[in-house]
Amino acid sequence: MFRKLTLSIIFVCLLAGAAHAQTPQPPRPEHTAPFWNVADWNNRSLSGDPAAVDTDSSLDHDWGAGSPHAKVNADRFSPRWTRYIEVSAGVYRFTATSDDGIRIYVDDDLVIDQWYDQSPQTFTADAELTAGHHLVKVEYYENTGGAVARVSWEPAPASTGWRGEYFDDSRGFDHPPLLVRQDAEIAFNWGYGSPAPGLPSDHFSVQWTRTAHFESGAYRFTATSDDGIRVHVDGQLVVEGWYDHPARTFSGEVSLTEGEHQISVMYYENTGLAVAQVSWEPASAPSDSWRGEYFANRWLNGPPALIRNDRSLGFNWSNVSPATGIPNDNFSVRWTRTFHFEPGSYRFTTTTDDGVRLWVNGHLLIDQWRDQALTAHSGVIYLSGDAPLEMEYYEHAGLASAWLTWERDDVPPPSPGTVIVDDIHSILGFVQSGSRTGWHTESEGYRGHLTWTRNNDRRRPNYNWARWYPSLAAGRYEVFVYIPERYTTTSQARYWVSHRDGYTLRIVDQSANGGRWVSLGVYRFRGSRDDYVSLADVTYEPRLSRLIAFDAVKWVPR
């Protein structure tokens, strides 16, 4: 009985082994084979043993509602094709058309990844290959309906456009892109949409590169983005706007020799709207910004290490460098621009740490070229029409700040005893803290300057906040806050008033009060450092969905 049972088990095992030996296995491609080796599975995951193996002279199939093989289903199947190609060194464009998902690997590098259900779509990606043989692997799956799988390659055409590498997150550029394509220009306004099928509408990033010919001279590069953007020319950072922000324009200038120059643009989208636009022009073109020439010394000597356009002069660098290539200490800047003034007297105020000189319409109005802690200096001049402005600044050591504002000086003065604290820095009673990259300034608002940030939905680490400290005599005052016209989309700005009798919260709808003073009420004040108004970015509205302006606060005796 035992012998019969043993023989039966051996016989069954032999049958199973024979059956297994007859299961087709995926073939291995040869370097010289002029065809594809293909294995087909009766599932969408290329898992288990293939149902069939074969060869294809080309990968160009439209099966319609049919099947690729007699042993393969008409729906819910997946093939894998492999072969070697022999190429000369260069950039090659791979093109795939599929219904449904498809992936292409070249030497195990994923160059096309469109693994999802779809009607027939065409995708392209460029890969730089060395001379010789390269393994190409194509994976495809069909769910239901029509079935299409086509793959081809050719040398990438010479192009005057941009090579765009699209990534499916905003973490960086140190992993393979999801999509590579040629873009004729960088002039995109995707709104709330996606740059391409298979890419998300938020949390994506792009790197564009190209070579362009320039005549000798200075060029201004301009970038408009929502959110972050950087532009490098021959490895030099020319435009910097690498932080979350609504659509905003940045510019910078660089001197170029005649010939070909490499341009690189890095961009990321966090949430909300998505905009990316880049252009350049000779630097002699008109600009509504300040031309900033940054020097890696304190004396404005030699050629500038960086030329860029600054929208406003309201910088608090603290102990950090203004830009890549500029030291933290021992640097200097020259800003120039022309501005149109209505007839009248104007008071110009510089607030700097360290030295500053200001020319207005050719007159040296402020000359404080010396080491100093954060200090404000003012001068008054009559202007009418266009007037050139030039401000020179140097930083020696320690903290670094440079601010310039102006206002009409022939307007009626405030009421006696009225105290106004604007969003200039601590020397004038305004203190801010939080995320350095979260703060932004603009040349508008009260006295032509405002500070703004995006909102938080709750109190988070490193949230942004500011306080206005007045210099008051003890007494009763009505407190007003100035709400500028723009950068005020929040309806839940939460102002806290610290006064003799405690703390009072007043919520102001900034979006409905642009261009006016809004009263926070009348309070008794001590006449001490405990008197202040505070405002934070915590509005409890959806995170980063609103803009909050921080401008002037006024105390009027009552």
Describe the protein:
- There is one protein chain.
- The chain has 558 residues and is mostly beta strands.
- It has four domains: 129 residues, Jelly Rolls (Sandwich); 121 residues, Sandwich (Jelly Rolls); 119 residues, Jelly Rolls; 139 residues, Sandwich (Jelly Rolls).
- Helix content is 4%, strand content 54%.
- It has one helix and 40 strands.
- The strands form seven sheets. Strands 13, 15, 18, 20, 21, 22, 23, 24, 25, 26, 27 and 28 form a twelve-stranded antiparallel beta sheet that branches. It has a six-stranded antiparallel beta sheet with strand order 2-1-4-9-6-7, with no helix packed on it. It has a six-stranded antiparallel beta sheet with strand order 12-11-14-19-16-17, with no helix packed on it.
- It is elongated and about 95 Å long.
- The N and C termini lie far apart (114 Å).
Major beta sheet, specifics? 12 strands, antiparallel
Rough shape? elongated
Q: How much β-strand is present in the residues? A: over 45%
For the secondary structure, the number of strands is 40
Percent in helix: under 10%
Structural classification: mainly beta
Radius of gyration: 33 Å
Q: For the terminal residues, how far apart are their CA atoms?
A: 114 Å
The number of domains: 4
**Count of helical stretches:** 1
CATH T-level topology of the largest domain: Jelly Rolls
CATH first level of the largest domain: which class? Mainly Beta
Low-confidence stretches: 1-21
What's the rounded overall pLDDT mean? Answer: 86
Return the CATH architecture of the largest domain: Sandwich
Fourth-level CATH superfamily of the largest domain: Galactose-binding domain-like
